[in-house]
Amino acid sequence: MILSKKLFKTGIINHGFFNKKNGFSQGIYKSLNCGIGSLDNKKNVKKNLEYVKKKLLSNKKISLLYQKHSAKLYFIKKISKRKLIGDALITNIKNLPIGILTADCAPILILDPKKKIIAAVHAGWRGAYKNIVIKVLRKLVKLGSNKKDIIVAIGPCINQKNYEVGKEFKNKFLTKSSKNSIFFKKKKERIYFDLSKFIYNQLNSFGILKIDVIRTDTFDKKNNFFSARRSIKKNESDYGRNISVIMLK
Q: Is the pTM of this model over 0.85?
């Protein structure tokens, strides 16, 4: 589990970017697979989620989403069992952990320590392209947050050196803005995209000053994170999901 120093020092939340360690799953899902949508044994996934919940010192079930690479967000005002389809959660409920699942995409945890409100955001390239994190921040401002108070941590995701993309991908971003060229680099006729830098730039442009970027590469096997790209390269039938969670004390 990796912590954001900026989030941790506030003292008002528990949080963590979890990797594959200390779970109950076996085989390609070994061991802390929290992917409820994966083909893993559901009992093991539930036990893994229970482990994470205990690490957060919570007695409440972790609120998760059925993620769709969208820009859909939810503000949770009360605990509910209804199915949420989207890619971001916001809440001001104490002791309620909210989480995001990733396997190379960027998990983003957000806190306004003054308003005591938190958010968890799933941002792959599609969500980032659709400005999901900006939409979450706009919602926080609408709820009364001041930009200068907001702390954002961009968690472990695939690093640029391993994120090869095609010309069509690059052109899509350049069509949106020619300034997006800075997030791409070419090496031996191959194009690579910097997802965390793209998100950081969105945050910075919006006026967020307190940003923590955890540059741990999920694709690099030694870091012990689940990686969709690495699993696909190995011709595995499926892959586990890493969980990133945040909770107000």
A: yes
